[in-house]
């Protein structure tokens, strides 16, 4: 059987099918020899047991299996070796054979590999018997394992040695503990086994043809835990205190890691060190650990390992406030910062994304461990700027993503953009983002302000803020309008508009400075943006005007107190900027809002000027008939609420308004605008206008226009159309009738009711259910007022609603 297996081992390399066959044959060889070994064990035949166990272990001499398949074969043999170890223990306990003799006996096995497996197995029994110090047996075993230099076979042999010895190390509190030096021996054994295993593991990369290098890398990756388990064993040794770790363990491990010059091994082992040893040890040996990073191969993913180290230590700091003084004592931030600088310097070809990722991790560490040290945060940002200096705007999407993470971290930590504005290097980092990402970052900043309802209260801070979000408030160099998605653009500008409402200061002087700062920036935004941002600025300014109502002062010069006049000057300039859009409807609405505010501040000239600008827009810019209808009703509604104007100014404005109303394109629109103008001549306010004659004139004029509309409908469509306009005018008559205007009598109302009935009954009238309902409702209202009694009932008593 052994000869057949040897023949298999000599076959040339084959494919996956061949490998499966070789594994099956190897397992069959293990099982067959295990069967004979069990029979020998049952009959207490030590000689045969050793013979068949050696033949079984000879199957592990194969070089034809991949690491994955070899592991399957190894585990079959490993399970059998447990039974053999139990037999050896029983033999020595019964006295059939001394453990010393057994230890010598197994060394006569023909092949080195089976001999060493048997030697390790007996060595485990030897240590258990305590007939020799554990340290001596372990030292002997680790030295003799050097006899296997084939990487794969040697790795699994040493893994077996590590497995059977891990509970027999001369550690503190262990039953195998010897003198004071025994801890050093235990550590030395594990370290030596680790070093030899790592050498074998690295050597695998350099065996075989170059074309299979990638395949070997994958195979090696499957075996990494065999090497890493040694570091885990080291971390579990009770006697490895901080001093021993600092003086012996870490320097020896790092020496091996650096000297092996293998990127896979260096990455994995540095990660292992970070994961298996305590955080406290890392903190106290930070300088030693970090000094190894610049010495690693350029291809090692240092950023990931360093990031994991910083994450672990920041979690350690967060776990208990008591450990924070230790971080300050060891100057953790300075050491990490220096180490990252050295790593970047040692790897001049490191991609930008790698360097920025390191700074993101350092910033995250800083914000968690030293949140109160803004100078540290700014230092990290400054180091990033230094790395990026001399480069154009980033085009690498991964690097851009990391820059966004870097800039977002302070916003998330402090929940206050004001804190971020104190970081001098923050805007300098943003300068390296492309236009699209600058906008994304600006939106993130605004969302942070909204989410945390941050109030920004000084013009200096607002200047800095607008510098950060400049990608949203003006066109960037090289930006193409064609690239803008309309919906995205609207959302961005709406966010800026919302931001303007978050800018506030209780001091009117400072608030005025804020408004001037905002105005300066948004007026540079170009026509497309003004329609979104100007209204927000106008209403913020009007809010300040309301606070200052009644105040006045000289408005000459620059450094003047915050007065309504000064603010209205700013408002005039701001709304006037909409003329370049153009957006006359919006500008007209804003002029009317300003006029109403000026009315409340008793500033008649200012209010008149705003109305003048509104009329100019109406005359020159608003040409769409629907827009004209909306605009004229807005003018009427605003003018009706004005009480500041003298007789001359008011007459001018009302005359203009009624004139525009009568010139609308469609007769029904003219009619409705004209009867709405009637409200301009009768207001209920104290000292309000009460000109019944002109009210009646407006209503009569509306009736004439309604009648003309009927005639036009009859001429063009052959029917007089609806009488809705007459019913609407009737309702206006009733409104002013109740107000007590002497010119509107019950006779006038009665005549109008009869006119409506006549029009409805004419042959040309068109039946309209909604008009019928409207008229019926109006008549019911008159009846309801009659039934009230009193003075109201008397007024309505003479009006007859039935035909």
Automatic annotation (TrEMBL):
Matches recorded under Gene3D superfamilies: Vacuolar protein sorting-associated protein 35, helical subcomplex Vps35-C (1.25.40.660)
What domain of life is recorded for the organism? Eukaryota
Instruction: Give the species this sequence originates from.
Output: Miscanthus lutarioriparius
What is the protein's membrane topology class? Peripheral membrane protein
Please identify the protein, giving its name as recorded: Vacuolar protein sorting-associated protein 35
UniProt keywords, alphabetically: Cytoplasm, Endosome, Golgi apparatus, Membrane, Protein transport, Transport
Q: What family classification does the UniProt entry report for this protein?
A: Belongs to the VPS35 family.
Keyword Protein transport in annotation: yes
Q: Where is this protein localized, as stated in its record?
A: Cytoplasm; Endosome membrane; Golgi apparatus, trans-Golgi network membrane; Prevacuolar compartment membrane
One of the record's GO cellular component terms: Golgi apparatus
Its job: Plays a role in vesicular protein sorting.
């Amino acid at each position: 059987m052994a000869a057949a297996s040897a023949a298999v081992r000599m076959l040339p390399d084959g494919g996956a099918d061949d490998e499966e066959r070789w594994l099956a044959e190897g397992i069959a060889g293990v099982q067959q020899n295990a069967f004979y070994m069990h029979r020998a064990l049952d009959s207490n035949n030590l000689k045969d047991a050793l013979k068949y166990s050696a033949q079984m272990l000879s199957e592990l001499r194969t070089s034809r299996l991949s690491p994955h398949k070899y592991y399957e074969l190894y585990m079959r043999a490993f399970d059998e070796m447990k039974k053999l170890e139990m037999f050896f223990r029983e033999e020595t306990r019964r006295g059939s054979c001394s453990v010393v003799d057994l230890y010598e006996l197994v060394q006569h096995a023909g092949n080195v590999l089976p001999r060493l497996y048997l030697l390790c197995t007996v060595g485990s029994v030897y240590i258990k018997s305590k007939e020799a110090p554990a340290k001596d047996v372990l030292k002997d075993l680790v030295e003799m394992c050097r006899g296997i230099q084939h990487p794969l076979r040697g790795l699994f042999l040493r893994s077996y040695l590590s497995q059977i010895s891990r509970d027999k190390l001369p550690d503190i509190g262990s039953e195998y503990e010897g003198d004071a030096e025994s801890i050093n021996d235990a550590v030395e054994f594990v370290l030596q086994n680790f070093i030899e295993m790592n050498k074998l593991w690295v050597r695998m990369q350099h065996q075989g043809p170059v074309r299979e290098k990638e395949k070997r890398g994958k195979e090696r990756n499957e075996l990494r835990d065999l090497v890493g388990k040694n570091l885990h064993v080291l971390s579990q040794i009770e006697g490895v205190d901080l001093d021993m770790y600092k003086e012996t363990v870490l320097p020896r491990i790092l020496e091996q890691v650096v000297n092996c010059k293998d990127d896979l091994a260096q990455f994995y082992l540095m990660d292992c060190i970070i994961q298996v040893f305590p955080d406290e040890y890392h903190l106290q040996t930070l300088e030693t650990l970090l000094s190894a990073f610049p010495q690693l191969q350029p291809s090692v993913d240092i950023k990931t390992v360093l990031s994991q180290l910083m994450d672990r230590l920041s979690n350690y700091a967060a776990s208990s406030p008591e450990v924070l003084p230790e971080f300050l004592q060891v100057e953790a931030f300075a050491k990490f910062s220096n180490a990252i600088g050295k790593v970047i310097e040692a790897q001049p070809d490191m991609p930008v994304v790698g360097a920025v990722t390191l700074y993101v991790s350092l910033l995250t560490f800083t914000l968690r461990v030293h949140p109160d040290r803004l100078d540290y945060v700014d230092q990290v940002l400054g180091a990033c700027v230094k790395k990026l200096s001399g480069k154009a705007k980033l085009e690498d999407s991964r690097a851009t993503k990391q820059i966004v993470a870097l800039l977002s971290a302070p916003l998330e930590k402090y929940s206050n953009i004001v804190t971020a504005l104190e970081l001098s290097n923050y805007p300098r980092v943003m300068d390296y983002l492309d236009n699209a990402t600058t906008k994304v970052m600006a939106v993130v900043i605004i969302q942070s302000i909204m989410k945390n309802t941050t109030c920004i209260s000084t013009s200096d801070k607002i200047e800095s803020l607008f510098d950060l979000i400049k990608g949203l408030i003006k066109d960037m160099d090289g930006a193409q309008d064609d690239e803008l998605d309309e919906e995205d653009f609207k959302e961005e500008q709406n966010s800026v508009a919302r931001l303007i409402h978050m800018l506030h200061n209780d001091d009117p002087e400072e608030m005025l400075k804020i408004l001037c700062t905002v105005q300066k920036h948004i007026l540079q935004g170009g026509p497309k943006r003004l329609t979104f941002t100007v209204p927000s600025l106008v209403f913020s300014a009007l809010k300040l005007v309301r606070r200052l109502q009644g105040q006045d002062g000289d408005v000459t010069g620059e450094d003047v107190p915050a007065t309504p006049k000064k603010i209205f000057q700013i408002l005039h300039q701001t709304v006037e900027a909409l003329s370049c859009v153009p957006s006359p409807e919006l500008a007209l609405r804003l002029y009317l809002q300003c006029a109403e505010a000026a009315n409340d501040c008793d500033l008649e000239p200012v209010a008149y000027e705003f109305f003048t600008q509104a009329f100019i827009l109406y005359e020159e810019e608003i040409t769409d008939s629907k827009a004209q209808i909306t605009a004229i009703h807005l003018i009427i509604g605003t003018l009706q609420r004005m009480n500041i104007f003298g007789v001359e100014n008011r007459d001018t404005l009302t005359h203009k308004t009624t004139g525009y109303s009568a010139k609308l394109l469609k007769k029904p629109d003219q009619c409705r605008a004209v009867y709405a103008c009637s409200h301009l001549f009768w207001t209920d306010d104290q000292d309000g206008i009460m000109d019944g004659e002109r009210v009646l004139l407006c209503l009569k004029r509306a009736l004439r226009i309604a009648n003309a509309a009927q005639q036009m409908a009859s001429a063009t469509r052959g029917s007089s159309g609806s009488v809705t306009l007459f019913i609407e005018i009737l309702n206006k008559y009733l409104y002013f009738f109740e107000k007590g205007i002497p010119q509107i009598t019950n006779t006038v109302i009665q005549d109008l009711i009869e006119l409506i009935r006549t029009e409805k009954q004419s042959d040309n009238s068109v039946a309209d259910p909604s008009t019928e309902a409207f008229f019926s409702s109006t008549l019911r209202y008159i009846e309801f007022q009659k039934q009230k009694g009193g003075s109201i009932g008397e007024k309505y008593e003479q009006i007859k609603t039935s035909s």
